[in-house]
Amino acid sequence: MIAVPKNPRMNTVIVRLICLGLVLVASPLTAAVVDGIGEITVRDDSGDGTFFTVDFEGNYLPNVVRRENGAASFEALKVQAVAARTFAYYKLRGDTFIRNGTSDQVYSLGGVQPNPGGLWEAAVRATEGEILSFNGILTATFYVAGAIPSNSSAVATGSDPDPTNTERFVTYTFANDRLGPNNTGTTLGFVGTPSNPNYPNRGAMSQNGSDRLSDDGAFYQNILKFYYGGDIQLGLVNPLPGQPPMHKTLTGFEAGNEHFARAINFAGQTRNLGAGSSAEVSQQEAQEGSSSQKITIDYDAAGDRSDNGVQDGFTVRHLSGVANGRRLSNITNGAPTNPAGDPVGNLVLPTEGSIGFWLLAEPVASDANLRVAITIDEWQNDVANADLEQSTYLDIIADGQWHQYQWSLNNDSLWLPAFGASSLGDGVLGQNMTVDSIVFRGQSDAVIYLDSVFYSSVVAVPEPSTTLGLLTLGIAAVWRRRRTARG
Question: Which residues form a coiled coil (predicted)?
């Protein structure tokens, strides 16, 4: 990879059209199933050329983020962390070490360094284990300094300053709608063709452009798709044996609506909402950080009575998926689509542990019957028709306080075909999954704040303490049967 440091982060800028282009040809990858590493061996090309070994997530990556794009704002630092992590795993597919220097990635100006802490470490922690792939193939994640964009689109013009002369390598894959084999990559690697694609080469990120997008409020996953393509897939490496439990915030609403950017009435299953319904980022309440998403339910009781003669309440299917998610109707051809609630717009997670979020609901009448569930796509390989499963419902505690709502992924009794349709799912989870949506139901107006949508590798019993909730969910975890292959 070429990882030209962002000027003036480093004093030496070397453009490296190196042998990785040959690696892309000689070492085709068949799947992005990647085992995590605890340590990485580094050859000190920026120092005395000796080798040293450091902790990968706790030392190597924070230092690379600091040296490669350390002055950037936080979402761009997260982008840098994912790109640096993915490239390191890609590099180690064909080598036993990585170079400290512009031939690979800059770790230091020479020698082992302590963990730099600060936002650099925080960016690595926030994206722990995250890597990019396409069609199950690990991506090379090239990046360069690029030009300094003068407009909010972050697409550089010919008049924008390009002090490192690297803008020529940057790809604006999302803006140019390059998907599947039509994304031929950057000239930093072996450039494919639509009939002979080179899937590891999905383009090159501009560090200056990434910083501009971050400054303007873009979510890091949208920035990654801006450069590497809307169809790039974010996933996790396999955990190390004995690794501490992972607790990962998927959506925290600190960079806008993040995964929940669609209108509250976007999904077809949403019904009986009035014109006053909305979902928008708010600083009025926050479970963590400074923001949450305020969901206002304007219940259309008259419309509810008229649609089927029965007043059975509202339903909201609040879809998850970043705005820049794109895919073809199949891998190699078809029309581009912008799928909501689709794996391509979400992080692939294992179906081990638990999934949940935090809600603060303002008080409502006792007969409001507010409930919540979560739906997931059980995901295996890059397919658009993953089975859709829905959790059992939990009663929403409307007392003006934050409460955690959580479901075990290890208990089949908590999962049913989504919306009761056997054509959508079968209530049995496969090996991987992505979040599809959060489903709200009730029979009154409501104001609900949503925050800290999370995945945990630990199985836990949900907090809501209503008798119905505990009976529905069960106290004892039941280890479920697992499919080893998708049907």
Answer: none
Model pLDDT, residue 382: 41
Residues 227 and 334 in one domain: no
Same domain, residue pair 130 and 97: yes
331 or 253, which is more confident? 253
Question: Measured between alpha carbons, how far is residue 237 from residues 36, 38, 85, 169 in Å?
Answer: 5, 12, 10, 28
In a domain, 175, yes or no: yes
Q: What number of other Cβ atoms are within 10 A of residue 275's Cβ?
A: 8
Angle between helices 118-126 and 74-92 (to 10 degrees): 60
228 & 348 share domain: no
Domain count, the chain: 2
User: Measuring CA to CA, which residue among 29, 84, 34, 30 is closest to residue 350?
Assistant: 34
Range of the domain at 325: 247-473
CA distance 166 to 143: 10
What phi and psi, each to the nearest 5 degrees, are found at residue 447? Answer: -125, 120
Average pLDDT over residues 433-442: 96
Q: Over the stretch 51-95, which tens digit does the pLDDT of each residue have?
A: 999 999 999 999 999 999 999 999 999 999 999 999 999 999 989
Instruction: Read off the pTM.
Output: 0.88
Q: List the alpha helices (DSSP H) in 318-371.
A: none
Residue 192 sits in the same domain as residue 118: yes
Assess whether pLDDT exceeds 60 at residue 15.
no
HSE (side-chain half, CA atoms, 13 Å) at 403: 20
Same domain, 272 and 185: no
Q: What is the mean pLDDT of residues 236-251?
A: 94
- 203 in the same domain as 275: no
* Whether residues 221 and 349 fall in one domain: no
Report in angstroms the alpha-carbon separations of 13 from 7, 16, 103, 164, 188: 8, 9, 11, 7, 15
Q: For residue 225, give every residue at least 6 positions away whose Cβ sits within 8 Å of its Cβ, in sequence order, or none.
A: 174, 232, 322, 324, 325, 326
97-156: per-residue pLDDT in tens? Answer: 999 998 999 999 999 999 999 999 999 999 999 999 998 899 999 999 999 999 999 999
Instruction: Provide the CATH number for the domain around residue 418.
Output: 2.60.120.260
Three-class secondary structure of residue 361 per DSSP: strand
